[in-house]
């Protein structure tokens, strides 16, 4: 028990050291609103963490260190070199190699750094709230924000960390890994929302405001569903279950196995009864993801086209269209080019970028000046 506590403290020290570098960047910045800068840096690192998490998953490094939070009860793979080499010698193409161990631990170090920055946000948010309660700070130009958003972020990142631990201890169980992915994107979305709250000006919308207030959240939900289907493809290793595009293994509608494809609580590669997962189930998982993609593309694309008619959102609408096109091309490219790692990672990054931009759009549309007047 003491050894585990010492290990946990050592890993927290690593996260503190990495987070301190980011805090130094915030402190040295010329931005007068240091809290806003802190959130912006956290958004940047969280986006990087999500992309690197996708790289970890796609390189099959999720069990590179088969225990948690350390690596064979050590704080880094260098100290666990003998155990890792022994596991690699026993299974040369197995989940444990030196490279995979480092990939997994770097992912954990980055996660701890993000957690440390969120702790810093909580401290600063509560300090500002306490100061603004006093009369001598009444004339302060700092925005009077509630500290509860930052506090909720701390709870959320702890929940995300718990699913990260269960990802390892439950041996990459698909529902746990998919939930871990969605929670990571949820954390990114909440951080972007917090960052938007620190902006001092509201945008003005035209007569299309009522349409945008409906379409923006609908597009966000459909995008979220599509990412969930994509995560289910990745965590079940079904990326190449369908060859060719737009057909799947030469047909538009293959034989589908709904019973096994979306049974959530089961082990990796197995059915709920413990038998091998049928190939038809993997085909179904892939086919649903590529089919529902058109629904998400239509919703997000329609939103972007309407945004292009709004003077204050035109640039953001063009950016959404560009990322949406890139996302489609990388998705199709992974099939045509037999799942190259670079394209697969870029496809994951595109999904995270769309979540980031649609969060910005939803905030700006909801709190537009016309919405305030209404």
Automatic annotation (TrEMBL):
Q: How does it sit in the membrane?
A: Multi-pass membrane protein
Question: Which UniProt key words apply to this protein?
Answer: Cell membrane, Disulfide bond, Heme biosynthesis, Iron, Membrane, Metal-binding, Oxidoreductase, Transmembrane, Transmembrane helix
Does ATP-binding show up as a keyword for this record? no
Compartment annotation = Membrane
Q: Does the keyword Disulfide bond belong to this entry?
A: yes
In terms of domain of life, where is this protein from? Bacteria
Q: Name one Pfam family in it.
A: COX15-CtaA
Residues crossing the lipid bilayer are 6-26, 38-58, 109-129, 150-169, 175-193, 214-233, 287-307, 319-339, 345-363
Q: In which pathway does it act?
A: Porphyrin-containing compound metabolism
- Name the UniProt record assigns to this protein: COX15/CtaA family protein
What is the species of this protein? Undibacterium cyanobacteriorum
């Amino acid at each position: 028990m003491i050894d585990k506590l010492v290990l946990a403290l050592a890993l927290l020290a690593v996260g503190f050291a990495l987070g301190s570098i980011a805090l130094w960047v915030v402190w040295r910045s010329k931005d007068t609103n240091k809290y806003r800068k802190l959130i912006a840096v956290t958004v940047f690192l969280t986006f990087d963490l999500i992309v690197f998490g996708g790289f970890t998953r796609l390189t099959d490094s999720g069990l590179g260190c088969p225990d948690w939070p350390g690596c064979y009860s050590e704080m880094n793979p260098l100290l666990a070199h003998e155990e890792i080499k022994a596991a690699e010698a026993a299974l040369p193409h197995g989940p444990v190699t030196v490279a995979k161990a480092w990939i997994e631990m770097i992912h954990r170090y980055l996660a701890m750094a993000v957690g440390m920055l969120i702790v810093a946000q909580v401290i600063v948010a509560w300090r500002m709230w306490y100061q603004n309660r006093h009369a001598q700070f009444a004339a302060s130009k700092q925005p009077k924000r509630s500290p509860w958003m930052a506090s909720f972020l701390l709870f959320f990142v702890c929940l995300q960390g718990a699913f990260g631990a269960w990802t390892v201890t439950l041996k990459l169980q698909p529902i746990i890994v998919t939930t871990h992915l969605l929670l990571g994107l949820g954390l990114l979305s909440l951080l972007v929302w917090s960052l938007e709250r620190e902006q001092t000006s509201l945008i003005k919308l035209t007569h299309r405001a009522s349409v945008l207030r409906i379409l923006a959240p609908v597009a966000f939900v459909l995008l979220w569903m599509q990412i969930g289907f994509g995560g289910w493809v990745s965590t079940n290793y079904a990326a190449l279950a369908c060859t060719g595009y737009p057909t799947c293994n030469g047909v538009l509608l293959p034989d589908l196995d709904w019973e096994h494809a979306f049974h959530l609580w089961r082990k990796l590669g197995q059915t709920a009864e413990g038998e091998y997962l049928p190939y038809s189930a993997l085909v179904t998982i892939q086919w649903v993801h590529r089919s529902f993609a058109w629904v998400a593309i239509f919703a997000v694309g329609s939103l972007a086209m309407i945004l292009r008619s709004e003077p204050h959102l035109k640039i953001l609408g063009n950016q959404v269209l560009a990322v949406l096109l890139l996302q489609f091309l990388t998705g199709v490219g992974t099939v045509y080019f037999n799942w190259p790692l670079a394209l697969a990672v870029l496809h994951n990054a595109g999904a995270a970028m769309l979540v980031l931009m649609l969060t910005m759009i939803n905030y700006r549309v909801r709190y537009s000046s016309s919405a305030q007047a209404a």
